[in-house]
Write a structure and sequence with these properties.
The protein is an alpha+beta fold. The chain has helices at 21-37, 56-74; strands at residues 2-6, 12-18, 45-52, 76-85, 89-98, 112-123, 126-134.
Amino acid sequence: MSYVELEHTADVKLRVEAGTLEELFSEAVRALMATMYGSVEPGTRAVSVEVHSADLEGLVHDLLSEALFLSDVEEVVFSSARLTIGKDSVSGILLGEPFDPSRHRGGSEVKGISYSGMKIGKEDDTYILDVILDV
């Protein structure tokens, strides 16, 4: 599992890679949080999540949007997720630590998740997600 920031003119574009779709979606949540807060460490807070959409791009978009919302409302910095991906849904638990303003000021404010440029593909045994974060 890994992610890198790709060059983008105005926003933050991420490429996320993983061996399974569940790992890809979990790593996308971690990449979102690292962009927002800089430091992302495992924690004991767990928040349930469930989203529905007609395709994989919609599922990851809605999952990341929900993680963005829950992080703000629940004041949690998510570091991983245990997810189950169905035909038209993603459900599971987002795991992380409480937001600490002294440690979580190193990132950029993310306003939303863009559908523009979003794609999920597979090369050999690796799933690849490109996603743009609206900052």
